[in-house]
Amino acid sequence: MSVVFRKKPTSVIGTKISKPDNPIDWLIFIKPMILFVCLIFGYILYANWASVLESLDKTPIKSYALTHKTRFTTNQDIRETLSQAPQLKGYFGQDIQSVKERFLALSWVRDVVVRKVYPNRLSLTLIEHIPAARWNHSQFVSDKGVVFGLPEGRFDAQNLPLLFGPDSESKVVLEAWGKIKRDLNTRNLRLKAVAMDTRGSWTITLDNDVELRLGRGDWLPKIDRFVSIFPEIDVPEGKRLSYVDLRYEHGAAVGLSNKH
């Protein structure tokens, strides 16, 4: 006979847990206000950034250092350029681009790299044009075909080629010089000057000061014609051959002048 004991269920008195009312999330309201204040502060800082930077400067920029020796630019040029108005500011407030533009105003400066060195110094790298030829007597043309000027006495241009033409065609004239010179060298002729007028008409001068007027178009056949007729040109005593006009389809006209 088995006896089954049944467990008397126990009663659990439940404790009622009351949930607090959900508080209003104050961040929902405060976050936009914080963002708005930050935006206002950022705008004020941006609008007055130059003034903020200048307030950090104790002294204006007072000195400079060149990264390499220049060919045409003197220390006097640099000092005068840096002393131009407006006066240089300090390390934080000085705009590098404005300093760069000052040096690029020098005709012979092709490019410049400017760096600020704390607390009141500039590092300058000046890249100058390289003269390839004299241009219209008073200027120079660089190896890149750029026309520029140099102060008197800065460069001995005695051995440079002579080029003439509109400034807008300087690169074309420089390239023509190289081609014509090579063509003449194969004919044992030496080139002294090349000129192009506003109509695109070419004139070259040999090292014996004889001027060849080639006109427009291909100059090779005209130079060949000069070479063939040159031995036949009769120059009277006391005269010298001044020019040979090769702009005609056939033949040429010659001009004579008195010997000096």
TrEMBL record:
Record-level GO cellular component terms: cell division site; plasma membrane
Organism superkingdom: Bacteria
Major localization class: membrane
Function summary: Essential cell division protein. May link together the upstream cell division proteins, which are predominantly cytoplasmic, with the downstream cell division proteins, which are predominantly periplasmic. May control correct divisome assembly.
Quaternary structure, from the entry: Part of a complex composed of FtsB, FtsL and FtsQ.
UniProtKB keywords: Cell cycle, Cell division, Cell inner membrane, Cell membrane, Membrane, Transmembrane, Transmembrane helix
Domain POTRA, first and last residues per copy: 59-129
Membrane topology type: Single-pass type II membrane protein
GO biological process assignments: cell septum assembly; FtsZ-dependent cytokinesis
Name the record gives this protein: Cell division protein FtsQ
Family: Belongs to the FtsQ/DivIB family. FtsQ subfamily.
Record lineage: Bacteria, Pseudomonadati, Pseudomonadota, Gammaproteobacteria, Pasteurellales
Keyword Cell inner membrane included in the entry's annotation: yes
Alphabetized InterPro entries for the sequence: Cell_div_FtsQ/DivIB_C, FtsQ, FtsQ_C_sf, POTRA, POTRA_FtsQ_type
Sequence intervals crossing the membrane: 26-46
Localization per Swiss-Prot or TrEMBL: Cell inner membrane; Membrane
Species of provenance: Muribacter muris
